Amino acid sequence: MSQLRNVFLRESEASTAPQMMAAYRAIKRALPRMKEKAGVKSLFTAAVFRDIVLAANILKKEEG
After folding, report:
1. Considering the entire predicted model, what is its pTM?
2. Closest to 47 measured CA to CA, from 59, 62, 35, 64
3. At what angle do helices 46-63 and 17-38 cross, to 10 degrees?
4. Helix (H) or strand (E) holding 23
5. I need a surface site. Which of 12, 14, 25, 64 has the fewest CB within 10 A?
6. Contact present, 60 and 23 (Cβ < 8 Å)
7. 31 vs 56, residue with greater confidence
8. Beta carbons within 8 Å of 40's beta carbon, 6+ residues apart
9. What's the mean pLDDT when you consider all of the chain?
């Protein structure tokens, strides 16, 4: 996780590995609701991906 974060963000904006794991667990718990809301069974749709990104951004703002 600590190396993965560097791929997406500048170091000054990067979450810590524990923060990323907490976000992962929170989003994983929310995935069934996200799929249901989007009316799909797969995570690999634009609607669910958009919701995952939105959830991750909200979690990031809440931590900082």
Report:
1. 0.70
2. 35
3. 140
4. helix 17-38
5. 12
6. yes
7. 31
8. 47, 48
9. 82
Alpha carbons 30 and 8: distance in angstroms, whole number: 22
Q: How many residues does the chain have?
A: 64
Here the tokens at position 28 are: 């994983």
Amino acid, single-letter form, for residue 56: A
Query: Residue type for 4, please?
Result: L
Give dist(CA 33, CA 43) in Å, integer: 11
Q: Where are the beta strands (DSSP E) in the chain?
A: none
Locate 21 and state its tokens: 């794991």
pLDDT greater than 60 at residue 11: no
State the Cα–Cα distance between residues 9 and 7, nearest whole angstrom.
6
Nearest to 5 by CA among 13, 52, 29, 31: 13
